[in-house]
Amino acid sequence: MIDGATEDTRYGPVQVEVTFAGKKITAVKTLQSPTGDGRSVQINDYALPILAQEALASQSASIDTVSGATYTSDGYTQSLQSAIDQL
After folding, report:
1. Which of 15, 24, 26, 50 could be 31's S-S partner, Cβ–Cβ 3.0 to 4.6 Å?
2. Could you list the residue range(s) of the whole structural domain that residue 24 is in?
3. 63 and 55 in contact (C-beta within 8 Å)?
4. Overall average pLDDT of the 10-19 stretch
5. Nearest-5° angle of CA 9, CA 83, CA 18?
6. pLDDT at 30
7. The pTM is what?
8. Which residues lie below 8 Å from residue 72, measured CB to CB, with a gap of 6+?
9. DSSP code of residue 70
10. CA distance 38 to 81
């Protein structure tokens, strides 16, 4: 397991932990996400599972931004890429 960098976004930090089997991404866990208000929590509850699924499918940080969760998506992909870069 490799922790990605904590990425500060407009609404709070985003950080992921990536599990690899060799060079294959087998799991992505969110360690930090914006929790400053109810709306942020609602957006992240929707967006984070989609982002994790896309990361597993693409095996990279080249994933689509989730509509309505642009800042979280950007922070997620940056943290994911930093974990991949440590491999």
Report:
1. 15
2. 2-85
3. yes
4. 97
5. 100
6. 98
7. 0.95
8. 9, 11, 14, 33, 34, 43, 44, 47, 48, 51, 66
9. H
10. 28
Work out how many domains the chain is built from and give that number: 1
Rounded Cα distance, 35 and 42, in Å: 9
Record the tokens describing residue 81, joined without a space. 């890429």
23: domain CATH number? 3.90.1010.20
Q: Which amino acid is at 63?
A: I
Tokens for 58? 């693409």
> Stretch 63-70: mean pLDDT, rounded?
97
The per-residue pLDDT for 9 is 95
Q: Could you tell me if 1 and 25 are in contact, meaning their C-beta atoms sit under 8 angstroms apart?
A: no
Q: Which two tokens stand for residue 44?
A: 């992240």
- Give the pLDDT confidence of 36-55 residue by residue, as tens digits: 899 999 999 999 999 999 99
> Measured between alpha carbons, how far is 29 from 24 in angstroms, rounded to an integer?
15
Residue 87's nearest CA partner among 59, 64, 63 is 59
